[in-house]
Amino acid sequence: MALCRAAIRAGAGVSIWAVAIGAWPPPAVAAECFHFDVPFGGEAVRFDGRWPEPWPRRGVRILLLVPGYNGSGEAMLSAGWAHFADRCGLALLAPTFRTSPEELKRRRGYYYPAQGSGEVIERALDRMAVRPGVRTDRILIFGFSAGAHVAHRFALWNPARVEAFAAGAAAGWDAPTRAAAKVPALIFCGEEDPRLVASQEFFEGGLSLGAPWIWRSYRGMGHQVSPAMAAMAQAFLSHYASGEKDAANFGDVQTYDVTTNAEEIPDAVRVKLPSAEIARAWQREQ
Fold first, then answer.
1. Phi, psi (degrees; rounded to nearest 5) at 248
2. Structure pTM?
3. Which of 30, 98, 142, 240 has the highest count of CB atoms within 10 angstroms of its CB?
4. Residues whose CB is less than 8 angstroms from the CB of residue 79 and which lie 6 or more positions away in sequence, other chains included
5. Spatial distance between the Cα atoms of 2 and 4, rounded to a whole number of angstroms
6. Chain center to CA of 134
7. Residue 135 belongs to a domain with what CATH number?
8. Would 260 be classed as within a structural domain?
9. What domain count does the chain have?
């Protein structure tokens, strides 16, 4: 594993995340960064990562950041995620996968962890586990667009390995399973995004299985990650990184009102918001 001391700068490389966030938050964070390759289908998949600063005493969990279509994992390590990771004591890990439209039409390629990309991610996690104090048993995942394809399908493929996942605006979703429905998830999409209906149907499928999932749509937003989406995803992932017990907050997905009394909201439109930070971010408009 090659290690480096580097400054991760927001906007370095091109990613949906970096473009959407712009100058938020401060532009640079000094940290210990690394990269390594994992074989996949006769080629090598590059993984870029970053250790938290400072190193938390309670040990380190991993947040897998999956970029958009054929996107750069290195570009995902922007200051927006770096500051968040330091606050939560998380190591960041981001792959750079490659596929083609022809492969995807055949349900092949990295969008489908059961076809091999899942094992590649698990081998990368094994590399991370070499460092003392790193937990790789249950990871957090964030993915938007193509990244959401990987995020939700990895949870379907190996739900026991996922603590929670946040997935936004995939063009296609596989049906939730009862095992995956036990994994907390945030599903989100812009209301002007053509992927809205498919994303909402996936959420509703999980809800029908009793999944502890949260839905959030964003008025006026197309296919991009807004600052409000970023804040929501980070509030959600922060809760599950902390290991804190759930609080009693409930939201109405029609009005985005929040209450501590579940009986005030009909079952069909009620989601549980397990922390005050999540409830605040969930109410916020872009």
1. -95, 80
2. 0.89
3. 142
4. 8, 9, 10, 25, 26, 27, 28, 29
5. 7
6. 19
7. 3.40.50.1820
8. no
9. 1
